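job 3f2a | input accepted
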Amino acid sequence: MTILNAEQKLMFDSMFKTLDHDELREVQKMVSEETRVRRELKTRNNKRSLKIGSIVEWTGQKSGSCTGEVIRVKRKKCIVKQTCPAVRMNGNWDIPMSMLTVVG
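job 3f2a | predicted structure (104 res):
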């Protein structure tokens, strides 16, 4: 899945090739910090909207893109019963709230 367009890729590629090692590490720290902040924000927003019975989507390494129903809400994760029949791996999943998107 490609998210960046060709122009953006070219811009990042040229920028990365002109940075020295320390500058590149600083950029990596900035990206890592921004990713952490956005993940925490999504978790906080999901905590307010996730309830037992909520229909959610997620993408996992083992299962791919799936939908399911929340059967338990914990502090940082939810137990989700997978409802999409197309995937072979049915069952309950313990999924971090930041990976879930509420669809219903």
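job 3f2a | Residues 21-49 form the longest helix (29 residues).
job 3f2a | closed
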